[in-house]
Amino acid sequence: PAGGLALLLGVLLWRALHGAPLTELSGDQDFQLFLQRNLEFTRKVRGDVAALQRVVCDTLQLCKEDELLLVRQELDIAQAPLEQCHRRTFQAETCFSQIRAGLRVYHSSLATIQALLPGHAALVETLQLDMANLSSNIQQQMEDLGLATVTYPPENQDPLPTFSSHFHHQVGGFFILANFQRFLETAYRALRHLASL
């Protein structure tokens, strides 16, 4: 349904920043610069995730999502929500806050990937650093623009998912990365849409 989501995103009405049309903000040079910088950051993070996905494919021979869907049902892999970024009543604050909350969720779940691919720790660390930069950049800009920073309580304070077997751990790692890539695509589309207003 990723294509359907893109279509949905395209047709939805994006509105309201404190009731004012976003176009008032979109002309703001600082805001445009912020969006461009975060589009670049998001692109970089997507590239980092894609590189890790290639490693998982090459190293663990886990490459195709449709072949793993049955195993996925046995796993408890959370998908960070981003519905605030493609709702009819789009609010920049809640979308940005949700992007930050999602980055936090995926940041902690990357420990699962690091345990799977100890030889690629540097790649995981680069990704974590880029995610932290993206998150703090969004927070800084929200403060500069006087937007309310909504802090979503962490969805679950639980420890990382536990896997009943090494194979489940590998498939869990595969789906964490696949979910994260989808999350980033949605975030990227939201930022790009804002930049085009």
Looking at this protein, list some descriptive labels.
glycoprotein, disordered N terminus, MGF factor, 0% strand, 7 helices, cytokine activity, growth factor
Describe the structure.
Residues 1-19 form the signal peptide. Pfam families: GCSF. Keywords: Disulfide bond, Glycoprotein, Growth factor, Secreted, Signal. By secondary structure, the protein is mostly helical. The protein has a single domain (29-150, 157-195), classed as Growth Hormone, Chain: A. The protein is built from 7 helices and no strands. The longest helix has 32 residues, at 29-60. The chain is elongated, with a radius of gyration of 17 Å. 30% of the residues are buried.
